[in-house]
Write a structure and sequence with these properties.
eight-stranded parallel β-sheet, alpha/beta, 11 helices, globular, TIM Barrel, two-stranded antiparallel sheet, binds flavin mononucleotide
Length: about 375
């Protein structure tokens, strides 16, 4: 029998991937200010990582003004942002790549200094992130504020912002979109019991807490068709104050419901690397999302988190996942697919340049040069 490998083709929705190594969505905080539109530097960065038939998932992009919690993050709700993204998409398509956009709302993972008119961030319930600090718009480290709970009547407006953002992504020429339901942001705040104390139809029971995820996903599917929409989840994750006491029943229900839609893919973050955006984490003795949920997800499964080339290949050969998204080592190795395929050494990444800045640590990582190595 011929087992699939990291370098065998894969069909994702209508797209034929030539390999199974994707760029994970990575916030890099280098959009133009104050427009928060992608700029030519961003197009160069994505184009460097594009390969024919390779999937790139572009960084989380807020769907509305209240969806921000950090500086220099690109939005997807103004004309200027749409045109900025169009240049990114064109640059990736020129190299034969396939690019999805991740749609984002941070909810309580924000500070009033990022909010329109300096109001409090919104969330399902007025529960602050305890024990962690955040940065204000002028860079001061402060405790998280207590967010304002969304009124039931406001929720359709947030769902509509996702719908409009999905339309905007379509107008920008993307090949699909990914709903960011992971890492402690708004959708996950609705899902999890400690951040959702609501007593309306969006809180309480598991189906009620899953309702917002499903309404957002359905709105995006209405725009794109299910086969061009992915969803990212991080069961057992600990980022940004996440943590469901017993994730299995909640995520089993959510995955089953998503399974009814016929989505392009489901995308997990493995718990061992939850919080990788903030620290070098490799949590030990934690469950594996792909192993736990594979049996109940019939579609394409992408996973991410702490993978080497060999581990990714093994996950695919063992049938635990269909594709693997790489984050940190794709930052420092723009030609990662070729390097892993040919066994070339990897350039280490520099965490200090992950967020914000310009060219340094963004577009200046070199491709592997065989001649220099020889
Ligand atoms: C700098 C940085 C930014 C990230 N931004 C996002 C993001 O915008 N959306 C998201 O879903 N995950 C984000 N993550 C998580 C990554 O997509 C990925 O799941 C994580 O880094 C683990 O994969 P890795 O071990 O290959 O880096 C980020 C991680 C890093 C290091």
């Amino acid at each position: 029998m011929n087992y699939p490998s990291l370098f065998s083709p894969l069909k994702v929705g209508p797209y034929q991937l030539n390999h199974r190594l994707a760029l994970a969505p990575l916030t890099r905080m280098r959009a133009a200010k104050p427009s928060l539109a992608p700029r030519p530097l961003n197009a160069e960065y994505y184009a460097q990582r594009a390969t024919p038939g390779g999937l790139l998932i572009a960084e989380a992009s807020p769907v509305m003004e209240t969806g921000f919690g950090s500086p220099g993050v690109p939005g997807i709700y103004t004309e200027q942002q749409i045109s900025g993204w169009r240049e990114v998409v064109d640059a990736v398509h020129a190299r034969g790549g396939i690019i999805f956009l991740q749609l984002w709302h941070v909810g309580r993972v924000s500070h009033s200094s990022f909010q329109p008119d300096g109001v409090l961030p919104v969330a399902p319930s007025a529960v602050p992130i305890a024990d962690l600090r955040t940065a204000t718009a002028d860079g001061k480290a402060v405790p998280y504020e207590t967010p304002r709970a969304l009124e039931t009547s406001e929720i359709p407006g947030v769902v509509d912002a996702y719908r409009q953002a999905a339309k905007n992504a379509l107008a920008a020429g993307f090949d699909g979109v990914e709903v960011h339901g992971a890492n402690g942001y708004l959708i996950e705040q609705f899902l999890q019991s400690h951040t959702n104390l609501r007593t309306d139809r969006y809180g309480g029971s598991i189906p009620n807490r899953t309702r917002f995820l499903m309404e957002v996903t359905q709105a995006v599917v209405d725009v794109w068709g299910a086969d061009r929409v992915g969803v990212r989840l991080s069961p057992y994750g600990v980022a940004n104050g996440s943590g469901e006491p017993d994730p299995m029943p909640l995520y089993t229900y959510a995955v089953e419901q998503l399974g009814l839609l016929g989505l392009a893919y489901l995308h997990f973050i493995e718990p061992r690397s939850s919080g990788a955006g903030r620290a070098e984490v490799n949590h030990q003795n934690v469950p594996s999302a792909m192993v736990l949920f594979r049996p109940i997800w019939k579609g394409v499964l992408i996973t991410a988190g702490g993978f080497t080339g060999e581990a990714a290949d093994a996950a695919i050969r063992d049938g635990h996942a269909d594709a693997v998204a790489f984050g940190r080592i794709f930052i420092s190795n723009p030609d990662l697919p070729r390097r892993l395929q040919r066994g070339f050494p990897l350039t280490p990444y520099n965490r200090a340049t992950f967020y914000g800045g310009d060219v340094a640590g963004y577009t200046d990582y070199p491709e592997h040069n065989e001649l220099e190595q020889a």
